[in-house]
Amino acid sequence: MSHVFPRHCHASLPTAVAGDGCYLIDSNGKRYFDASGGAAVSCLGHSNAPVREAIKAQIDALAFAHTGFFTSDPAEQLADLLVANAPNGIDRVYFVSGGSEAVEAAIKLARQYYLEIGQPERRNLIARRQSYHGNTLGALAAGGNAWRRQQFDPLLIGVSHIAPCYEYAERGAEESLADYGQRVANELEEEIQHLGPETVMAFVAEPVVGATLGAVPAVEGYYARIREVCDQYGVLLILDEVMCGMGRTGHLFACDGERVRPDIITIAKGLGAGYQPVGAMLCSSAIYDAIAKGSGFFQHGHTYIGHPTATAAGLAVVKQLLDPAMLPRVRELGSLVETALHSTLGQYAHVGDIRGRGLFWGVELVEDRETKAPFDPGRGLAGKIKKTAVAEGLICYPMPGTRDGRVGDHVLLAPPFIMSDEDPQLIADRLATAI
Ligand code: PMP
């Protein structure tokens, strides 16, 4: 009997023993093409030499030093590199160990910022339905999936949820894209008015929605309006790039591609590329200074923040992402994925939509592609596709629609940036067999 406490108690899983570029290998020698990197983690594949060497060198020199006593070279250098390439105005980096911790830190930072500047009544957070921001209690409260939240309610903070920008499912037949974008962005203003502008601290959203909707970018104009509303009411804009960040969309920071300027950004997954658990919350000096000049102490922290080995891995990853050839290559491979998915799956009866950015793609699955009627959730589509894809030697990320009767069954693809020109077709072929 295994003594590991698995998340899916009844799953019987193969044992992964090795990684080789785009492939994972199990204890029977079976090779799986990793087209989702778990969920958008393994951006550099599985045997990246510079990251492995950086980790070894750091462990040999110093594995751990507590940030209550020391800073470290890799943490300093990684923060410098991130800030040098971050959107304008973002110039402080708070390291954590993963995505939920980064979101948790962002929520607490927003709350503490308003306390420090004397607006203690600003405690409400606005997020979007059909969203996921992590599984710790604060991040879970932010997420817009009632099914995930319900058994833990009431959670610590007040969160209300507005519509996501999900044109495929929610745009009216007669409505232009631009009108749709403005209509859903205006929900933010309506919610702020409803709650009382003096009570709202922040709005959180993914620039390109990952796990819950399947690589869905907002329509043109949506984020410009969101930024405008945030500025008008003094609401902080937190962009969660845990999944879509770190080059995944063809830009180091996804918000740069979507042309929206955040006050706070969260990153993780691709930052450590799977080699180390590392994430970060980035913010502006304006926010940092309010705390530095106020209480001088951020009320949030974990033992492993700024971990030297983890930040050394992150540094080796980000250096490679900033190689001048890397992000153009992500965009080039992205068009090959787009072509392969459309030509192979575009006419499938149950494929409702294919969309994405860079190497972040979603294939929407529907009962009827004309009416867009969703599958009955009872059919357990995601689990079945996952099982058949794994049998085909393909790791992809099928997700059910949120369990509140809405559409959203999809397969998410987030393949490594190091794949060959032939690999997009291999992914499309294996996925086609699984579907
Ligand atoms: N935010 C987003 C957008 C995510 O996709 C995830 C993980 N899927 C998280 C936060 C939480 O990250 P982690 O699982 O590393 O805690």
TrEMBL record:
Q: Keyword Transferase: yes or no?
A: yes
PROSITE patterns, per database record: AA_TRANSFER_CLASS_3
Name the UniProt key words of this record, in alphabetical order: Aminotransferase, Pyridoxal phosphate, Transferase
Please indicate which superkingdom the organism of origin belongs to. Bacteria
Q: Give Gene Ontology CC terms.
A: cytosol
A GO MF term: pyridoxal phosphate binding
Q: Which EC numbers characterise this protein's activity in its record?
A: 2.6.1.-
Instruction: Tell me if Transferase is a UniProt keyword of this record.
Output: yes
Q: Which cofactor does it need?
A: pyridoxal 5'-phosphate
- Which InterPro entries does the protein's record reference? Aminotrans_3, Aminotrans_3_PPA_site, PyrdxlP-dep_Trfase, PyrdxlP-dep_Trfase_major, PyrdxlP-dep_Trfase_small
Gene3D superfamilies named among the record's database cross-references: Aspartate Aminotransferase, domain 1, Type I PLP-dependent aspartate aminotransferase-like (Major domain)
Please name the top-level EC class of this enzyme: transferase
Protein family (similarity comment): Belongs to the class-III pyridoxal-phosphate-dependent aminotransferase family.
Q: What is this protein called?
A: Putative aminotransferase
